Amino acid sequence: MRRSRTSSTGVAAGFALATIACVALGQGSTVDEIAKYRQALQDGNPAELWEARGEALWKEPRGPKRTSLEKCDLGLGAGVVKGAYAQLPRYFPDADRVMDLETRLVYCLVTQQGYTEVDARKNPFGSGNERKSDIEALVAYVTSESRGAKMNVSLDHPRMKEMYALGEKMFYFRGGSHDFACATCHAEDNKRIRLQELPNLTTRDGAQKAYTTWPAYRVSQGELRSFQWRLYDCFRQQRFPELVFTSDASIALTTFLARNANGAPFDAPAIKR
Amino acid sequence: MAGLLARRLWCAAGIAGLVGCAMAPSDAEIGAKATAVMKASFKEAGQAKLDRLDQDETQRVCSRYAGKEIPKDVAAVIEQQNLATIRYPADGKLVGDWKNGERIAQEGRGKQFSDDPAGPVGANCYACHQLAPQELSYGTIGPSLYRFGKLRGYTDEARRYAWGKVFNPDAFAACSNMPRFGHNGILTEQQIRDVVGLLMDPVSPVNQ
User: Fold this and answer.
1) Fewer CB near the last or first residue (10 Å), C or N of chain B?
2) Do residues A63 and A12 both lie within one domain?
3) Can you name the residues that pair with A19 across neighbouring β-strands?
4) Among A161-165, A201-205, B23-27, whose mean pLDDT is lowest?
5) Does B123 lie in the same domain as B71?
């Protein structure tokens, strides 16, 4: 717990005020005002609650095997959490698969703690107060341990190279009732949907700013959201069917975006509207 | 797919250790594999069935050239094919109720797996365009449409252009970012008429 905490009610009230202020100020200064609002929120990020719960979930003996996740190998050796997220996704020989963090966590829940595949992946995203996701808490903890680490996703392994190439193709895949691709909204600088700025994910700068600020606590949802959720909800709005949690398409797109963010210091869990 | 697999096996068979894999998969092979992986990575939900991933010719060609400039002859074919899909109303009435058009332009729901299949279905024009100046919360992916009719003149030609553009924008600009609202069955004929009203009625706030 590095920072003081603000109650989520206070955050929500601040958000409402900021929204009114933005509308009153009009177009010219709106983007600046939203940036100031984000800055103000950084002082008390409820993501810390997820980080603390995730750390406990990581260290407690759990599951049918009554073991902790402290021997889970996130790519830097058994139990090494510090800096691991900044080098994901990566190819894991033990699973013979390219994995992002969420896929690797499911793998560890199964192989180390003895959960079934179905149990390990049944609750990927929380839905407000009545059902919290353990995966999202673990994601918050693990990613928080990479804060400040430089993004460093290697494509040296041929399977990583292939995943990156597939992710790039998927980024431009137009489909569905609306002809949308990721690129429809994320391939030009300085564009907005309504007042929401859109990162240009085809540029180094855009990919760095976007990728290094997920996961994030979403004020409007009262939930911490993982990168898997980010992709799932983008595709929902793209009018695609439902992206399967930890599917190869989700890992390919994550590989494409994470690699494009290489060199930037990781700075999440963040907070977003 | 088979080619890609064969090459990987070939690489694994021992060449890799000596000189690395000499032949990278072609762009077309990666594209084909990406499509196959996509299809295996989604499940149907609500009204969004897996056929949403079955690309038509326009989607396929536009995906291939995305991020690069589309050759002029390819763009011309796409525009021609899409132009042929535009259906004008049998009664010839192109301009509907701008007030209803404004509601459709504001409505962001429709066709998402989280949306009620019974509706409402909107066009969400403000997500990407400026229209009526009273609405400050507009996006910038598309051009401003403020004074759309006033600038072009309230001619039959301009009204037909507005109708065609909402029905199928790829007829006028290949691989447009804008959905093909009529061609893809997102909006009904009456909804298109009302959106055209928002753009082309002289009393619409868009034209003040």
Assistant:
1) N
2) no
3) none
4) B23-27
5) yes
Which runs of consecutive H residues, i.e. helices, occur in B41-71? Answer: 57-65
Query: Does the N-terminal peptide bond of residue B120 adopt cis geometry, omega within 30 degrees of 0?
Result: yes
Residues B148 and B167 in one domain: yes
Q: Same domain for B176 and B208?
A: yes
Q: Are residues A137 and A94 in the same domain?
A: yes
pLDDT interval class at B24 (50, 70, 90): confident
Distance CA B36, CA B30 (A): 10
How confident is the model at residue B19, as a pLDDT?
45
- In chain A, which residues have their Cβ closer than 8 Å to the Cβ of B54? 175
User: What is the four-CA torsion angle of A201, A202, A206, A211, rounded to 10 degrees?
Assistant: 50
Residues of the domain holding B189: 49-208
- The Cα–Cα gap between A80 and A78 comes to 6
Closest CA to B61 of B49, B75, B47, B48: B75
Average the pLDDT over B36-64 and give the result. 97
Q: Give the number of beta-carbon pairs within 8 Å between A and B.
A: 146
Q: pLDDT over 90 for what percent of chain A?
A: 82
A235 and B52: CB-CB below 8 Å? no
What is the domain count for chain A?
2
Q: Chain A contacts of B53, Cβ < 8 Å? A: 175-176, 240-241
Best B30, B177, B187 residue to mutate vs chain A (most A CBs within 10 Å): B177
Residue A194 has its nearest CB partner, among B33, B126, B180, at B126
Q: Domain residues for A222?
A: 45-272
Helix A248-260 to helix A227-237 angle (10° resolution) is 110
Just list the catalytic residues of A.
234
How far A5 CA lies from chain B's nearest CA (Å)?
31
